[in-house]
Amino acid sequence: MKSFNELLVKQRDFFQTGKTKDVAFRMQSLSKLSTMIKSHEAEIMAALKKDLNKSEFEAYMSEIGILLEEIRFSLKNIKKWSRPQKVKSALAQVGSKSFIYPEPYGVALIISPWNYPIQLTFSPLIGAIAAGNCAVLKPSELTPETSKLMAELIENTFPSEYITVLQGDAETTQVLLMEKFDSIFFTGSVTVGKVIMEAAAKHLTPVTLELGGKSPCIVHKDANLKLAAKRIAWGKFINAGQTCVAPDYLYIHRAVRDKFIHSLKEAITEIYSDDVFKSGKFTRIVSDRHFKRLVTFLEDGKIIHGGRHHSDLLTIEPTVLSEVTWEDPVMQEEIFGPILPIFEFENEIAMINKINELPKPLALYIFSESMDFQQTILNKISFGGGCINDTVYHLSSPYLPFGGVGESGMGAYHGKGSFDVFSHQKGVLKQTTSFDLPLRYPHRKNALKQLKRFIK
Ligand code: NAD
User: Fold this and answer.
1) What is the pLDDT confidence band of residue 93, given thresholds at 50, 70 and 90?
2) Are the CB atoms for 404 and 362 separated by under 8 Å?
3) In the chain, N or C: fewer CB atoms in 10 Å?
4) Is 244 a catalytic residue?
5) pLDDT, tens only, 47-68
């Protein structure tokens, strides 16, 4: 496979011209990206339909609309974010002024997955552009129509020495990773996250890892059950459960289990109909391999809702499982599909301990009216981010950092976070030349005593 060195040299040369650092250029580029997305909305929706059978509603809400909002927010704030920030100087540095200069890293590599292919490729790109970087984008080979379209759109909008899309599979990424990038932003699985970090370590390139895992959803006995059921059904089955922050499994208080399950079944039917094969609007599973993996999970526990699947359509209807054990295959990995196992709890501490035995989740959801219970969970369980009395919604806020912790990832983005992950914070002290405090010099009489008066 050919090396990507030539492309990297071109991007690095372009970065060196300083053009990408000009805030007006960055704003112009963000506006171009916005126009590109808006004016090709129909093609984007068509590609997502072909690759994933994504409905237009879901495509707009979770891919197109979310990006347009993010660009708007970035454009509104970019001047403020990119200005040098004046900060205090320490007492011993009297006479000086201190500043933080955000500066772009240089050439960024953005590697994205297939589940929200447009959003998860362009959302980090917004940060890379806003911060003044050049970027190489490597979308997933599992959504070929969308990746091809992104490559065409980017090629027609930006010069390749500034932003370019490289299509290809794992091998392409590995050849790409031999090059020295100035920052790497990866969204994908934990396993591949480790490969990326190892490759980045060879060049000491900073990485942001947006990974996955099993995100729990807890429903306490005092929760508003009907609303909880609706919001959980929505967050779990949107995109057929192929969402990194989808509730992976439910933990329901025993006292309300049956009542909740009744509401959950009603909510699933209300939102997704009682026959997703007929409605034709339910997102499909991305590949035959993923479909087969998910179908084996249907043998775990007992199906209490759904369970029908159609291999020609690569579609599995929203399915709820009970009587699952922690040893079952469905609980050994991130489900990433429309299958929801339910566990019950009575003892809060035992439930918390169980969650804490597992890797730190990317998301966690609490449904409860009790502030005490909410606070207990927040205090005792570490997780990337989440919601109280909702699911998934936290990721659409530009005011909240979005990212994992521990095995669910490192670094966070969205809003100013996206600008920050692609920026180095250069701290600079501007010293006065009008006088020279003698404090630091060791050759004076009582030098140490005087120093100690300032530095305690
Ligand atoms: P993946 O890790 O298989 O692939 C992601 C990207 O890495 C793709 O572009 C792929 O071509 C590339 N890749 C795959 N194998 C590689 C290898 N060996 N070496 C180098 N590159 C390789 O992930 P996926 O299946 O596309 O996505 C699903 C995973 O992503 C889930 O675990 C999900 O939770 C996670 N995810 C996380 C977020 C988040 O924001 N935290 C968002 C979406 C998905």
Assistant:
1) confident
2) yes
3) C
4) yes
5) 999 999 999 999 999 999 999 9
